[in-house]
């Protein structure tokens, strides 16, 4: 994600410079030979404001439609299957997964019959030609399951190999390990 942020900031600086130059060049009321520091500061402030608005809208929405160097679009609603092993016992759970995404962030929410998990931090990286989503999460168990399945922290590694199906592994601080399989059921734009 650091490279994505760096790339986003560099593109933002180029846009800022372009807006600044356009603002000065097309201002017919300015005498280019007698420009003051106050004028430059005013134009710079306008350029920063316009660029900030554009970059904010691009980061949240426009990157989906104008994908200039964008990561894969994984936002949407998924159904999933979680196969896990805890204390030598293997089991399987069905899950509903909601992935919200902007250009620079990914948030994953998983809901099962016992717990919900929410992303703490995530990073979508390119490894050996494939995109991998790494994210760390915390679980929130339903009260009737909290004794046997208390709050836990975990990390998941999801291979983003197609547009609609992902697979990965996860592990937790309670030494639970497992595999997760996701299949997209709808694309949600929020």
Short overview:
This protein has helices at 2-25, 37-60; strands at residues 76-86, 89-101, 106-111, 115-127, 130-141, 153-160, 165-172, 177-186.
What does this protein look like?
- The chain is of the alpha+beta class and 190 residues long.
- The protein is 25% helix and 43% strand.
- The protein contains two helices and eight strands.
- It has helices spanning 2-25, 37-60, and strands at residues 76-86, 89-101, 106-111, 115-127, 130-141, 153-160, 165-172, 177-186.
- Strands 1-2-3-4-5-6-7-8 form an eight-stranded antiparallel β-barrel.
- The chain is elongated.
- The mean pLDDT is 88.
What's the tally of helices? 2
Instruction: Note the main sheet.
Output: 8 strands, antiparallel, barrel
Distance between the termini: 21 Å
The appropriate CATH architecture of the largest domain is Beta Barrel
Question: What best-fitting shape do the alpha-carbon axes yield?
Answer: elongated
**Which regions are unreliable across 5 or more consecutive residues at pLDDT < 50?**
none
Across the major sheet, the strand order is 1-2-3-4-5-6-7-8
> Structural class per helix/strand content?
alpha+beta
């Amino acid at each position: 994600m650091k490279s994505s942020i760096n790339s986003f900031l560099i593109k933002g600086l180029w846009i800022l410079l372009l807006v600044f130059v356009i603002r000065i060049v097309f201002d017919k009321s300015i005498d280019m030979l007698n420009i003051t520091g106050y004028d430059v500061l005013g134009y710079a402030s306008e350029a920063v404001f316009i660029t900030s608005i554009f970059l904010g809208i691009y980061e949240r929405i426009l990157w989906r439609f104008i994908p200039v160097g964008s990561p894969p679009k994984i936002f949407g609603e998924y159904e999933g299957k979680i196969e896990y092993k805890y204390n030598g016992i293997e089991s399987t759970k069905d899950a509903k997964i909601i992935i919200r995404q902007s250009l620079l962030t990914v948030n994953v929410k998983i809901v099962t019959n016992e717990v919900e998990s929410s992303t703490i931090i995530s990073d979508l990286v390119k490894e050996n030609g494939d995109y991998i989503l790494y994210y760390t999460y915390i679980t929130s168990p339903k009260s009737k399951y909290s004794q046997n399945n208390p709050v836990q922290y975990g990390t998941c590694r999801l291979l983003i190999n197609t547009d609609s199906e992902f697979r990965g592994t996860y592990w937790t601080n309670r030494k639970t390990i497992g595999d997760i399989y996701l299949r997209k059921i709808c694309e949600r734009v929020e």
